[in-house]
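PROTEIN DESIGN WORKSHEET
SECTION A - STRUCTURE
LENGTH: 374
TOKENS:
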């Protein structure tokens, strides 16, 4: 395989771009409309797209992650989109003083991706720290954005507000540019994001545009990647708050059937016996109904109708059976991969080698464009 195929022609992005928009209501509406168009283009010719996505290794992935993004990664891979999955180990340090238990978390992420169906023969799984050329792109990219632009990024503001560091590090402010390097090193032209990540992607698009204008000499060195928004289901944790790695309220993919049953037995519901789907007034019950519906390929209303007045115990039994049945093949694949840790190392080494080849080719192109290839 060519280690650095052009994801898009050098002179233009893969598809006509929507105008850049601020991440307000109008911008989100435009992003959703463009996402629908991108889905049509993917169906017609998936080979014109290269996608970058990934996770920070800060803990085990859960069902919120799975239905929010992981399942979509596998779907796009299977359609024929070239997939790069970054395990962003360096980015753990943006909001933590130290990266605890990093090796174990990296292994867990690799296991989860293999278990859900990411194919290392068709997709590239790699670690951030293992690709030096990727990180060398940070310096020229930082020169293309102002301090004011980084300061007013709403996602950075939110990350700072919830930071776990004793003091906010300089890395926090460079986080959007770090992500730009992650995306642009492989010339990804498609990035699946949630609505809150649109400001980060806009920084990436700005970096690509400014680099092309300053150094491209009339050609496109980098594509301007586009956001692929999808409807992310709101799944609450077992305590009724947002499902989170750090809150101990999540249903992790690595859990056994018995562990899942125990966690769901303690899930928060309400005092009404008749089960109905009403996210506004019954968020905990509705989240459980939605989870069962996602696993069964039905609507939450249909699940609620089946349970009727049988109460919270019947609801939890239905959800437990649905989740355990859905996760059974994923758990089986996970257990198989977990028996051979050497295979995990092989997958990661192969992914790192592939990512390094792509990053080094991109860095050579950047140096040539900047007249610094001496």
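SECTION B - SEQUENCE
RESIDUE ASSIGNMENT:
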């Amino acid at each position: 395989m060519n280690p650095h195929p052009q994801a898009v022609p050098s002179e233009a992005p893969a598809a006509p771009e929507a105008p850049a928009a601020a991440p307000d209501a109008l911008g989100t509406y435009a992003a959703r409309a463009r996402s629908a168009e991108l889905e049509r283009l993917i169906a017609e010719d998936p080979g014109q797209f290269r996608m970058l996505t990934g996770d920070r290794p800060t803990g085990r992935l859960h069902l919120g992650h799975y239905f929010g993004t992981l399942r979509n990664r596998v779907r796009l891979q299977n359609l024929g989109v070239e997939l790069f999955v970054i395990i962003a180990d360096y980015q753990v340090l943006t909001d933590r003083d130290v990266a605890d238990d990093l090796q174990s978390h990296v292994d867990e992420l690799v296991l989860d991706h293999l278990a859900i169906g990411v194919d290392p023969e068709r997709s590239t799984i790699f670690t951030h720290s293992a690709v030096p050329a990727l990180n060398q792109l940070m310096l020229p990219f930082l020169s293309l954005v102002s301090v004011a632009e980084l300061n007013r990024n709403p996602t950075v503001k939110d990350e700072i507000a919830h930071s776990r560091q004793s003091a906010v590090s300089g890395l926090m402010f460079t986080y959007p540019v770090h992500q730009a390097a992650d995306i642009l090193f492989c010339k990804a032209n498609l990035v699946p994001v949630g609505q809150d990540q649109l400001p980060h992607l806009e920084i990436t698009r700005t970096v690509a545009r400014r680099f092309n204008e300053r150094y491209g000499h009339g050609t496109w060195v980098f594509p301007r990647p586009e956001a692929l928004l999808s409807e992310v289901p709101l799944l609450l944790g077992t305590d009724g708050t947002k499902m989170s790695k750090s809150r101990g309220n999540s249903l992790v993919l690595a859990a056994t059937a018995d562990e899942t049953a125990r966690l769901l037995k303690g899930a928060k519901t309400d005092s009404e016996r008749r089960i109905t789907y009403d996210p506004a007034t019954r968020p905990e019950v509705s989240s459980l109904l939605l989870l069962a519906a996602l696993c069964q390929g039905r609507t939450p209303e249909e699940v609620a109708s089946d349970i009727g007045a049988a109460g919270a115990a019947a609801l939890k039994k239905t959800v437990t059976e649905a989740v355990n049945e859905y996760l059974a093949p994923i758990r089986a694949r996970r257990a198989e991969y977990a028996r051979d840790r050497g295979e995990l190392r092989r997958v990661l080494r192969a992914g790192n080698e592939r990512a390094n080849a792509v990053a080094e080719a991109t860095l050579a192109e950047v140096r040539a464009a900047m007249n610094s290839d001496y």
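SECTION C - NOTES
Residues 341-369 form the longest helix (29 residues).
Residues 1-23 have pLDDT under 50 and may be disordered.
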